[in-house]
Amino acid sequence: MSTQTQSQSTFAKLAPLEAVLFDIDGTICDSDPIHYHAFREMLLEIGFNNGVPITEDFFVEKISGKHNEDIGPILFPDWDHEKAMKWMDDKETMFRRLASEQLTAVPGLHKLCKWVEDRGLKRAAVTNAPRPNAELMISKLGLKDFFHLLVVGSECKRAKPFPDPYLDALKELKASPEHTFIFEDSVSGIKAGVAAGMPVVGLTTRNPGQSLLDAGATIIIKDYEDPKLWEALEELEKRA
């Protein structure tokens, strides 16, 4: 059985589908370039790395997809927690200013959202982003009325890559993991979804497809216009 056929079979088993869960950064919008710019500029201002700008590879490896509580100690191992978190808060303020002007949806997002709405499915946004960032991005993308719930990692017992945010979303939505799947773009997010017992669609917005498959993604797509996604959803509909 080909990988594609296996993926479609996995999705078909979800019928009848109850809910769809979405990460935010890199999953519904390509926000990583904005985060990268904010980190690079603000780290330059404080002479990080002897004044040499961070690279995209450094950003992907050390920062992307991680929770701020984890990023602080990685960047500033010698700083106390309060100072590191204050710097992270200032960086998020810069991100929101830039995002309010530059944020765009991942191609095909609104087509997929209509598919989800038309079937009356439950839906939640589940993110490691701070709540003000998440609310801004959802609002900028015109999805304020689309999501029934927003779950923020820092408000859960543990953030991604632990399963807690996704398990909390299922509980709030009164949905079963056997009839729910997830969209994610980061290794930590995929690991969280898999640990929560659900299939995960991995988006290669910024991260290599192989790293997403290695983390446990069921299927890899470029964006929401990818034929592989719609073939899997078609199989699911047939089963239902």
Automatic annotation (TrEMBL):
Swiss-Prot/TrEMBL cofactor(s): Mg(2+)
Keyword Transmembrane: no
A Gene Ontology molecular function term of the record: hydrolase activity
CDD domains documented for this protein: HAD_BPGM-like (cd07505)
Superkingdom field: Eukaryota
Keywords: Carbohydrate metabolism, Hydrolase, Magnesium, Metal-binding
Pfam family, one: HAD_2
Keyword Magnesium among record annotations: yes
NCBIfam families per the UniProt record, alphabetical: HAD-SF-IA-v3
Protein's UniProt name: Haloacid dehalogenase-like hydrolase domain-containing protein Sgpp
Species of origin: Iris pallida
Organism ancestry: Eukaryota, Viridiplantae, Streptophyta, Embryophyta, Tracheophyta
